[in-house]
Design a protein that fits this description.
Layout lengths: L2 H18 L7 E6 L4 H13 L4 E6 L2 H10 L10 H12 L3 E6 L12 H6 L7 H8 L3 E6 L3 H7 L5 H15 L7 H22 L3 E6 L2 E7 L10 E2 L5 E2 L7 E4 L1 E11 L4 E2 L5 E2 L3 E5 L2 E6 L4 H7 L9 E7 L4 H5 L6 H4 L5 E5 L18 E5 L6 E5 L5 E6 L2 E2 L2
Parallel strand pairs: 1-2, 1-3, 3-4
Antiparallel strand pairs: 5-6, 5-18, 6-10, 7-8, 9-15, 10-13, 11-12, 13-14, 15-16, 16-17, 18-19, 19-20
Helix pairs in contact: 1-2, 4-6, 7-8
Length: 400
């Protein structure tokens, strides 16, 4: 690895370990890895051990092995997930471990020529127990981007490989605020802005949000006393952490029975397995998806939304203002962590019960898939219980 890239990897690792996950002495640290991301995993391991970690546990996922399964395995076995996959996640929760995930595609298009229905049935590397651990708040966790040549080529196809990777690194350094003299201080300042916006939204107690824009006329009902959350998370034991770096969103869990209208995605969606869903248009009635169209990835995404009854309902609504660093770049990263923090988004599937006064009203599902619906052309209006309409986001600016 070039010396400059190694230096940047160590900076990113320190941010994820020390500030994002906030790894504590004596903790187990679980790190997810895919081919091509080993260099950052090793930097993370070194950083974690320097902070006194008891053990760094690396979990490996290979998308080419997944391809072999979808291509050759018996159809009846595609839904099988070994029980120890879920038990591993639950054990990390019981151990009060730290968890760090690395995003960014390593094998774009590796499944594109395979049966999309079969591809949609194999949901790995996602496991349903991850949502349980998040909602139980038993681990301090964070996710961050990991540049790879394959990802760089996907984002900047017109550049030579080395130049594309360099450009990707430059943008990730910028959006992670690693170009600041004190990145942690910069993140704390941004965190306080987001927390303030979340507090104002909670105080307004809107009954619904209305989204209007090209191809979008969507009303999402909200639950009574629902709390809006931003970048600052805290475990059940009081340990603070930043779940995503970078993060620019404020979010809550909506009423899963009250979504009506149509919505058009404003950025491509990349599923966990690398499938790209482009030009997504979704219609809702009575809270559930009634129509779904896309120019690419349609069948795979539709299959995901049929995983269980909750998979076709919303579990999250998130608002992103125009002051963040990601949207200003006008880059499509083909990575949900970055793209969802460039624009307001919604997610089908599992909700966040810990944000609700009555957790039983949260949507339940084995999946949680975000897709981006925001842009400067999309206006978000809050609707009170009395029917008053209050501007919330207009041209990317907060109005509350």
């Amino acid at each position: 690895m070039p010396e400059g890239q190694q230096d940047r990897a160590e900076l990113l690792a320190e941010l994820l370990v020390g500030f994002g996950a906030n790894v504590q002495p004596g903790q187990i640290v679980a790190v997810g890895c895919e081919p091509g991301k080993e260099y950052l995993v090793r930097a993370i391991a070194a950083s974690a051990y320097r902070r006194g970690a008891k053990f760094v546990d690396v979990g490996w996922f290979d998308p080419w092995v997944k391809r072999a399964r979808i291509e050759h395995a018996e159809d009846a076995t595609l839904d099988f997930v070994p029980e120890w996959y879920g038990e591993r996640v639950l054990s990390l929760g019981r151990e009060r471990a730290a968890r760090i995930g690395l995003t960014g595609p390593v094998a774009p298009g590796v499944l594109s020529d395979l049966d999309p229905v079969r591809a949609g049935r194999d949901r790995l590397p996602a496991v349903k127990e991850s949502g349980q651990v998040v909602n139980e708040r038993t681990t301090n966790w964070s996710a961050g981007p990991c540049p790879t040549p394959a990802w760089a080529k996907m984002v900047f196809p017109d550049l030579p490989p080395d130049a594309a990777l360099e450009r990707l690194w430059e943008q990730i350094i910028h959006v992670c605020r690693l170009d600041e003299p004190d990145p942690v201080a910069a993140w704390r300042e941004r965190r306080d802005v987001l927390v303030g916006a979340a507090r104002r939204l909670t105080d307004r107690a809107f009954d619904a949000l209305h989204y209007e824009g090209p191809g979008t006329d969507l009303t999402v009902g909200l639950l009574p006393a629902a709390r809006w959350q931003a970048a600052a998370f805290e475990t059940v034991d009081g340990l603070q952490h930043m779940p995503n770096l970078p993060t620019e969103e404020v979010f809550t869990t909506p009423d899963p029975a009250r979504t009506e209208g149509r919505v058009r995605s404003t950025k491509p969606l990349v599923l966990f397995d690398g499938t790209v869903v482009s030009d997504l248009e979704v219609e809702f009635a009575g809270g559930s998806i009634t129509e779904l169209r896309a120019s690419a990835g349609e069948v795979t995404f539709r299959t995901r939304t049929r995983t269980d009854p909750g998979a076709a309902r919303l579990g999250e609504v998130a608002l992103v203002d125009g002051a963040g660093r990601i949207g200003a770049l006008d880059t499509v990263f083909y990575d949900t962590l970055l793209d969802e923090n460039a624009a307001s988004h919604i997610a089908v599937g599992q909700g966040f019960p810990f944000l609700l006064e009555d957790p039983a009203r949260s949507n339940e599902s084995e999946i949680h898939v975000d897709f981006m619906i925001g842009s400067p052309d999309v206006t978000v209006t809050g609707i009170t219980a009395g029917g008053e309409r209050v501007p919330v986001l207009v041209a990317g600016d907060w109005r509350i």
